[in-house]
Amino acid sequence: MLQHHRKITLRSLLLVFLLLLFSSPVFASDITITIDRSEFNNGGTFTVTGKAPAGSKVFLEVWSEKRVRASYFDCKKDPKTGKIPYVLCLCDQIPAFYHLVIPTTEKNELQAIKAQGNKWSLSQALKDLGAEAAYQVPAQAEIKAYKASFLASVIGSRGELLPPLNSKEARKRSMQLVKARFRDPNKIFSPTLEINPDGSFKATVTLPKNSAPGQYSVVAVTDKGERSQPVHLENSLHFPTIYLGNAGTGINILGPFLLALAITTFGVLMGAGGGFILNPLLVSLWPLPHTIVAGTVMPTVLFSQASGIYNYSRIKFINWKLGLTLGAAMVLGGFIGPKLTELITLDQFKFVFGWILLVLAGLMVWQTTPGYLQRHKKEQAILKEFRRRAQEAAKARLAGEANK
Predict the structure, then answer these.
(1) Which pTM value belongs to this model?
(2) Smallest Cα–Cα separation from 96: which of 219, 221, 187, 230?
(3) Which residues make beta-bridge pairs with 68?
């Protein structure tokens, strides 16, 4: 009985050892790698050199220690079942910067992937480039999947949390999340790796400006899955460039400050906080996720709204009954909107927001036409009265300050 127990124990230990061996990256001592720089101030270019077994196809995997959240809503019809999954995938462990350096011989293949536009697939790209073995770090991230629905999002829920994903499904979902995070093949791949017949290789790698601060790791990987020991470098950011942790990027804060100052001035003039103008401009001018922009602009509008409310109340332009009615509806909309933001892509966000702005612009232009103004003389009389009151209030204020 004791011998049988020992045999089971030995078998169990052997099984655990094999699982650990094949689930962990294989580091090969015969693959060497060095970099010519180890410290950077807001990005830069460095050169990677090394040697692998002759005849091997080599790739470089580069990633940042900083992690960000990425989301992907799977609402595409499954060609096999004909059903739409409606699965929301969330992950807080996607590298803020992730890059695969591929051989120069793959330039044409990479161009073909870029030509697919938004329809390109990261999993298919890795197959076409022969880089499946190089894709490792994001595949190890913990991913939560939810059985989502439109109704669940409206009531403030992501849906039902599904059981943990198996390794194959997690790898597939991680590729979807990486594509959702970086979107452009140019941000994930660069064909700058030159490989010589004797196995030596050399590549130039660019760490973009405003990349996340902290440690970066670089590993050489062969097409057989052999990996070198990682080498590390450090990137730093200095004011006025600051790092936005939930966006995974740095930004020179002076640009958004001046933009917000100009937009708020005109936004309050039109009876708004300026967020509807600031939102699309931030998405277009800086590489910020639309979810972060929408969430950030929302509370910042409070500052312009608070000062605007104070000044409009002094000149008696606020109708509180109408304002409270509209406010009740906006509370409900403010509850639904953030949930829907997780379920749409950047392109869908731009499309919807663009059409809303076009419709509003068309209405405002139409209201300045002579025919419209002629039919709304009463409205013009009210506007003139408002202007008169505003001028009187301004004069009274100036007189009061002069008496002081």
Answers:
(1) 0.72
(2) 187
(3) 94
The H or E element spanning position 153 is helix 150-154
Cis preceding-peptide flag for 338 (omega within 30 of 0): no
pLDDT beyond 90 at 388: no
Give me the residue spans of the domains in the chain: 25-236, 253-366
Q: State residue 16's pLDDT score.
A: 42
Using 50, 70 and 90 to split pLDDT, how confident is the model at 223?
very high
DSSP-based three-state secondary structure for 367: coil
Sign of CA dihedral 265, 267, 272, 273: negative
Two structure tokens written together for 355: 């059409």
* CB 104 within 8 Å of CB 191: yes
pLDDT in tens, 298-355: 777 666 667 667 766 776 667 666 667 766 766 666 666 666 666 666 676 667 767 7
Q: What percent of the chain has pLDDT over 70?
A: 70
Phi and psi at 210, nearest 5°, equal 70, 15
Q: Are 107 and 185 a contacting pair, CB within 8 Å? A: no
**Residue 204, token pair as written in the block:** 């130039």
Q: Cα separation of 100 and 28, whole Å?
A: 19
Average pLDDT along the chain: 81
Regarding the domain delimited by 25-236, which CATH topology (the fold level of the hierarchy) does it fall under?
Answer: Immunoglobulin-like (2.60.40)
CA angle, 138 as apex, 93 and 235 as ends, to 5°? 70
Cα torsion through 367, 369, 373, 376, rounded to 10: -40
Report the alpha-carbon distance of residue 357 to residue 263 in Å, rounded.
15
Give the count of beta carbons closer than 10 Å to the beta carbon of residue 72: 24
Q: Please give the single-letter amino acid code of residue 164.
A: P
- Range with the poorest average pLDDT among 7-21, 105-119, 345-359: 7-21
Neighbouring residues of 87: CB distance < 8 A, sequence distance ≥ 6: 73, 74, 145, 146, 147, 148, 162
Q: Could you give the maximum distance between any two Cα atoms of the chain, in Å? A: 104
Helices 290-314, 346-366: axis angle to 10 degrees equals 30
* pLDDT digits 0-9 by tens, 206-220: 999 999 999 999 999
**What are residue 398's phi and psi, to 5 degrees?**
-65, -40
